[in-house]
């Protein structure tokens, strides 16, 4: 199933592109989205292999590839 990129996913991806590696908490702060919304978007991006954990205990994420560039 292809990744659905909605407005909230766009906000999360934009933060990765502009700031680099980010924690879940930082994404919540920078996007003004709720933690469950950010977590859901991260789970989808991770399942589609566009992001990966850099450090799982702190939930530090890294964008591997921008899914919008396809």
UniProtKB/TrEMBL annotation:
Domain HTH marR-type: 19-58
Listed InterPro entries: HTH_MarR-typ (IPR000835), WH-like_DNA-bd_sf (IPR036388), WH_DNA-bd_sf (IPR036390)
SUPFAM superfamilies for the chain: Winged helix' DNA-binding domain
Any single Pfam family the record assigns to this protein: MarR_2
GO molecular function: DNA-binding transcription factor activity
Name of the protein this chain belongs to: HTH marR-type domain-containing protein
Organism: Halorubrum coriense DSM 10284
């Amino acid at each position: 199933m292809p990744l659905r990129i909605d407005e909230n996913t766009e906000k999360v991806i934009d933060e990765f592109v502009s700031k680099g590696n980010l924690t879940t908490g930082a994404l919540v702060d920078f996007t003004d989205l709720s933690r469950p919304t950010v977590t859901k978007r991260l789970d989808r991006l991770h399942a589609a292999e566009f992001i990966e954990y850099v450090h799982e205990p702190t939930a530090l994420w890294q964008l591997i590839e921008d899914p919008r560039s396809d």
